[in-house]
Amino acid sequence: MISFQSKLPKTGTNIFSVMSALAQQADAINLSQGFPDFECSPELVSLVNQAMQQGHNQYAPMTGLLSLREAIAAKTQELYGASYHPDNEITVTAGGTQAIFTAICATIHPNDEVIIFEPAYDCYAPAIQLMGGVVKRMELEPPDYRINWTMVRRLISSHTKMVILNSPHNPTATVLQEEDIRELISLTHKTDILILSDEVYEHIIFDGQPHRSMARYPELAERSLIVASFGKLFHITGWKVGYCMAPAWLMNEFRKIHQFNVFSVNTPMQYALADFLQVKEAYLGLADFYQQKRDYFRSGLESSRFELLPCAGAYFQSVKFNHISEDNDLLFAKTLIDRVGVAAVPNSAFYSKKTDFGILRFCFAKKQETLTKAVEQLLKV
Hints:
single chain, alpha/beta, four-stranded antiparallel sheet, seven-stranded mixed sheet, Aspartate Aminotransferase, domain 2, PyrdxlP-dep_Trfase, 2 domains, Aspartate Aminotransferase, domain 1, 381 residues, Aminotransferase class I/II-fold pyridoxal phosphate-dependent enzyme, PyrdxlP-dep_Trfase_major, 15% strand, Aminotransferase_I/II_large, 40% helix, 15 helices
């Protein structure tokens, strides 16, 4: 027998893959995994084809195509009043998850402590653990999932290296408020604490609320690695293209890992994205586009037995069901697939302790006919 010790012995297949596979087996409507079921812009596809036809099919620069980095810098300056230099403060990545993993690899040493807020996107903790870091978890509770900053201060120690934030938040659909920013500035002032800010849903915020990017606040920007995703921006999750922004000294460390992690990102899609970023309405209209879907889905479920939780951003709607069934959320989610034909994600999957508040997460980044069918089925519960 070959002796082997797993580096992540408690980690299995992620919940998104599990629920999507169950949905496929049952031919159910898949509202579990967070991807659109509608097409991206034909113009964007045409730009990719054009780049391929023009021969842009070899390695891109390790840091990303300069024209794309320049377009990202211009967009960030216009939206957040923040200057990031394309040469040494922006790197194009193979999606948001790779950027997060690379940021953690570049900054976390053995025994460094990293604070995360649960429910949390499932890639944070494993990356920290792989680097020998210590995950300090703070559980947030429904219905508002607000951060208790007094409790956060109690988690801070001389070993605290990083705080990971996600706004708009997956899975809770909450967004950071100005009071959160004030607390974060106070918390990190005159410390060496870094911030990893997962902002992949930055343009999907509802009811006129602003996106409070770390880039807006110089006191936070100076210590932040900011992650963004073109997959969420342009409905192209399968392309796996994102980027990271950080001060030059931090980006230098990020690139040391990035060059050996993926080296570079597919070239023709970078050319297309650089051009398509000039079509500002494609991302400035995203909030209204998804708010219509949110409102349609919520209005359809208002007469259901589910209790709708607030949804301020991202494209997820959480619902409470524990007044309907005593089943745990995973079992209830599987029952929905088998008996109702709709797949959701159980929110306990986002907690390390599998904390179960009787809540499911639905993705409403779907065509209207998909949402209509899903609502019809869910009204049968």
